[in-house]
From TrEMBL, chains A, B, C, D:
Subcellular location: Cytoplasm
Gene, per the UniProt record: ftr
Organism from which the protein derives: Methanocorpusculum labreanum (strain ATCC 43576 / DSM 4855 / Z)
UniProt entry tagged with the keyword Transferase: yes
EC number from the UniProt entry: 2.3.1.101
Pathway: One-carbon metabolism; methanogenesis from CO(2); 5,10-methenyl-5,6,7,8-tetrahydromethanopterin from CO(2): step 2/3
Keyword Hydrolase carried by entry: no
HAMAP family in alphabetical order: FTR
Ranges for domain Formylmethanofuran: tetrahydromethanopterin formyltransferase Ftr C-terminal: 150-298
Species classification: Archaea, Methanobacteriati, Methanobacteriota, Stenosarchaea group, Methanomicrobia
An example Gene Ontology biological process: methanogenesis, from carbon dioxide
Database matches in NCBIfam families: one_C_fhcD, PRK02114.1
Main location: cytoplasm
A GO molecular-function descriptor: formylmethanofuran-tetrahydromethanopterin N-formyltransferase activity
Oligomeric and partner information: Homotetramer.
Protein name per Swiss-Prot or TrEMBL: Formylmethanofuran--tetrahydromethanopterin formyltransferase
Length: 300, 300, 300, 300
């Protein structure tokens, strides 16, 4: 591939390739609470067990802190995003609000307005068993449901949009820790891009997979040996350059192609600023999986 | 109930009642990582969306920090506990390790030895697609699976035990914030009791429920109006004493009756030390739900 | 004072009084690092032991997170502010950068441009012992100093301005925890106001003082008994209304009168939104201490 | 130096050298609060600006979390340690308690009993201006001082001991991030050793210094060029092996020689378990500075 290693940013090679994104349904929910800390606890619980729809009910993450001046009830909050198929999204928005936010002290829930292509009815007010009442909070129609901790205020329609999943890039480091810190720096940067989340633990993927398995036919997915540094010598078609000790991937979901594109850009650049990063590449399926292409050359 | 208010601790009334616990299958998993921080991120992701088996796949929480001197690979770690039915537990242990820990940077997984009544096979080594190998770490047989970030070490059998769910007590405060901080103090104390978790957000339940609904027949559960302070005047059989502004519940799962009993004790006492707490009670179903009774009188 | 209790916000009484501010020299320093987490650790160390110039070398706090897109070296950072007299400020800016930031891993230091009324020379480059060199980072002239961890980049002039100290308000709660959580909510809100800090622990003051002592002549300051709820019955001129169990004060330093005014406003309103807050007042010395008056009536 | 590189741990070279410790006065203070979080905020404020006695008033750090079951008032707490000369220690214990703990919401202060070679009188009760009273908490004689937030309980004698400062080791990494994460892992491990602190930001020193300066005679200290990787080629007597990109130092203060020795051991071993660490060494002054020698050969 004589022309493929033709880009650099801050001395790091960017492979001339692209991440392949595909459509996903996305919803955003704003969780407020009496303090930033309690809003964070609820948001964390509500977005757990949500790294990949392969094995989790949905993909989810905290999008951003929302200051009190921007929330309907003027209390501090966090916006979370949930992404998956349309049917599962309806269930997950309901379940995660019901189990992880309604149950959390002092919280309220508002529509984060990811879009209005689909409106998800939450219908939590029936939990009030007749004691619920309609209230207007910050100009928004909500239900107020008596609970043990007081009244739980909830806007019961959450807008959803056909967003983009599968934005990604891979960070190759001259040491495991170079790649790890670069991944953290990338996640720090992406956390400032509205409309995006990095759903994996701490925003980072350590174990890339390929579809199926060469050896174990019953496995639907298995390790992507071409990107495993410790078996570089054993894999003839390894994609690991000499000297690379670890690869971490950042996976991005977003409300739009533009949001994911921006996240890719700031994430790649942040990773490239960390000493010891030697190469950035991205994952795709040859264009067969999804209609969105995020070229690394657009990241610099 | 002339004789029911006959106990006090630190000036707080303890109702003469009990929490009713019931059997649950419990497993403990130790997650280590290169730093305490990365182990925590993985543990947090793995125990999210896990407040109550009513709507979540399982109940889960971080049991405790495990110092490097006590882990098989001598790295810092966190012990997490997962609790639910036996069949669901097998699935959840596998899924949460596979999706939330295998994917997390630098992690390893070890059996936390909750018990050996049931052994859950994780069988993650097939993910290695033939590149996996057996290794001994800290005297323990593990698999080492090549992944992008390096090698993922995993002990593939996790012991489970028939533990106890449903330990609980309710904290009534003269203000919402008295009850809230008391709940946090209780959770702080319980976090030091081995073999127990408080699975709700921040360890606290804000919205207690009753089975079914008086008004909406299609609802399987609805607000427990007798414990809702804001409708105290509307509910003839309210359990809310005059002056109580909020009630928060602590729910405890544990590996044994003894562990839950100890957690109840330290939690109740911690709550009673917070100014503004006026009464502690507990929830039961008249002994019909479960065989374990945790009397508040044993908490002082 | 028949007309003094004539304001309310969200049902909370605001006393018709004002906070009295006075001039203070203020500097802002931007600390960047490889990750948000490491920038935070350095910023925390650099702003500790800095609650009040009565006993600390200066007053300091973290002003805000600065995203990578806004810092000169495109890495995540925190802006800290230091406030005290002009001479002490020069010393403190130097000492805190030298001892707490230069020593912290991966950090760089930039002028946060609080103002340019006074330019503080840091002159850390002499630490390089001749190995230092001039570099331009993000268009800014800096020094690059070889250290064990790599090269420490520092902009050596930090602008200072005559700002305002002593912005304050007092939160009175029907329980200690109502006042405490309200104080935390106020600090959360003020943390979003540019150009301000709340230098006390967690942003909150628990122990107000008066100048001198009635009983112990050798004491320069002692408890302000008129604002102590637990001795309300013993102090004839108590300022504690019946039913108030605790008072917490928020003290604000800012780069300008406008910044402190805005912080007062959002802080007071945030506190008033917390259930159980019954009254807000403010501290002044009858206008003898400082030229700035922040009236509570301007906060609503 | 044919025999100096004769040790290895986990494949990392340990130089056959030692850290040189010297006597320091050390005090321990236990800070409790209504929740773990508020105790932590006070402890953090009280231990800031305290990395090195070269430019800070003292060296200080959080020693450990103290569970409610072990504190005199049965609330959660943190033990902090302060280290410096005897006279300065008396001042610093008083000032830091008075400015950073008395002012912090809901806190209490107890003697952490580092030793009893010297007893530091805090005498905060005079702040009560006659309203203070003696109380017994957990069997301990304390003063209760009325403040705005309630009553501040303080044990007014804090024991001090002649401890050991200057425990240290240097971590050399094949990348900056290998050394950084190894330093963090070392600090994680040392944080579990009773009686020790790592006073620098995040526990890590990025900028080692030598006494004086070769070029600038007015400088009391300057960069230790022999340990600066970026100028390795310019410094004939460099101590940086080929391929080393960064060096981070861990500095340890402890209540005793044994405590520092144990901290050195667990810290060195933890660092050596991080991939990419190539060498560990330690700093000494040829035995001229202090009477304590902590040999790296005793760390494995």
């Amino acid at each position: 591939m004589p022309n493929s290693y033709n880009m650099e940013f801050n001395g790091v090679i960017l492979e001339d390739t692209y991440a392949e994104g595909f459509p996903v349904w996305a919803a955003r929910v704003i969780i407020t609470a009496v303090t930033k800390e309690w809003a964070y606890k609820a948001a964390t619980e509500a977005t757990g067990f949500a790294t990949s729809t392969i094995g989790c009910p949905c993909e989810a993450g905290i999008e951003r802190f929302v200051p009190a001046s921007e929330t309907p009830d003027n209390r501090p909050g966090y916006a979370i995003m949930l992404c998956c198929g349309k049917k599962a999204l309806k269930e997950q928005v309901l379940e995660r609000i019901a189990e992880c936010v309604l149950t959390a002290p002092t919280t309220a829930v508002f529509n984060g307005k990811a879009g209005s292509e689909e409106i998800i009815p939450v219908k939590l007010h029936f939990f009030g068993d007749g004691y619920e009442s309609k209230v207007v909070v910050g100009g928004i129609n909500c239900w107020s449901i008596p609970i043990m901790g007081g009244n739980f205020v909830v806007e019961e329609e959450v807008g959803a949009i056909k967003g983009v999943a599968g934005g990604n890039f891979l960070i190759m480091g001259d040491s495991q820790m170079s790649a790890l810190i670069a991944a953290e720096a990338a996640v720090d940067a992406i956390s400032c891009v509205p409309g995006t989340i990095t759903p994996f633990p701490g925003g980072v993927v350590s174990s890339g997979s390929k579809v199926g398995s060469l050896k174990y036919k019953f496995m639907g997915a298995s390790t992507n040996e071409k990107f495993c540094p410790t078996i570089r010598e054993k894999v003839p078609e390894t994609e690991i350059p000499e000297g690379v000790k670890a690869v971490y991937e950042i996976v991005i979901d977003g409300v739009s192609e533009a949001a994911v594109k921006e996240a890719m850009k700031v994430g790649v650049q942040a990773a490239c600023r960390v000493p010891g990063v030697v190469k950035i590449t991205a994952g795709n399926y040859g264009g067969n999986l999804g209609p969105f292409k995020f070229h690394l050359k657009d990241c610099i």
